[in-house]
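Z., the sequence and structure:
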Amino acid sequence: MRARSEQYQAYQRLFSMTVDDFSNLESLDKSCTKRHAVWKLLADLESSTHSWTTDAVASLDMAVITAAVEHTQVEWSTLTLTLTV
């Protein structure tokens, strides 16, 4: 994105236009990246939970399930905290 911004700035200078710093694009990119991480975390959890609800109870490994849920909880807390900042 930075290279594209610099190219457009060069065009703006070439045509004697006001040069935009495109700082809003960098902010938007960071915001979208964080939101993508949240949605990916939820999709990964949903993918895991499908087998938990359809497989035989005897075949489920509670340690794996617990680890997945705890990992999701920690990541969720971290990601949603950064979304509000």
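Residues 2-84 form one domain. Helices lie at 2-14, 23-54, 62-84.

Let me know what you think.
H.
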